[in-house]
Please model this.
Amino acid sequence: MKSSEINYTILSTFIAVHGATAWALWKTGFEYSYLGWAIGIYAIRWLGFTCAVHRYFAHRVCRTSRAFQFVMGLWATLTMARCPIKFASGHRHHHLHSDTSRDLHSPAKKGILYAYIGWVISKNYDEDRLGRVGDLKRYPELTVLNRFYYLPNVLLLVALYAIGEMPAFAYGGLLSTLLVWHVAFSVTVVFHCIGAPRYETYDESKNSLILGLLTFGEGWHNNHHANMASCRMGEYWYELDVGYLVFLVLEKLGLVWDVNKSVGSRIYRPVEDDTKETCVQIPIFDDAQEADRFAA
Model:
């Protein structure tokens, strides 16, 4: 990557958070009980990634009220992934150009290091350049969250320190941030390198049982690429998908509705099936009026 292509604001933030985490962990020391903070807050944040950032904002797998959409937006910002608009823009671009030279983070085309972290600090990762988020930009509250995504995280750090002092601050606040980041970065690489595909999606997406368990369902990546509009990534009982279960609970509570629960693909044939015709149809949101279908 050329120096002129680097977003130095993002790079400096990335370095600063790693440095602050190292200092806080050294200052706090280690006890096994502290890991509870890291694991607990990581779980909340990663569910925010898979449910809010990925499935709702990037793929619009259900409908909800405008008020609860804002709650989902707040949940999304806690991942520190520049949400909800920026990630949706980059991710929709990824599905449109998956594992081609135009893909932001294809390990096959861009190399493992760039696919892991290079694209995150690249100026190319920009919602104004990539577009396709007119359905999200029409909401002023979402554009504010997208711009000031760090503020809810600062408030979380303050709250954690007030509740549990340095152990909660260091492990629950800072360390969990790095865990979410590096798991998310790994997703872009590992899920296109390790595992086996169920569908012929014309990219390198794969399914992995172990990764599916570790990422609350994101590991059923080939299923997702074959049916990206579905909330359900795990298609069978043994493909545990915690993110999907969260949507079932939200639906039961009346907070979301019209949840897309479809299984299988009408576009791609299974790897072992030679009878089904295949075609490529990528649903991309580009019209601000599309938003009316999802946030009432």
Notes: DSSP finds 13 helices and two strands in the chain. Strands lie at 63-64, 256-257. Residues 3-293 form one domain. The two ends are 43 Å apart (CA to CA).
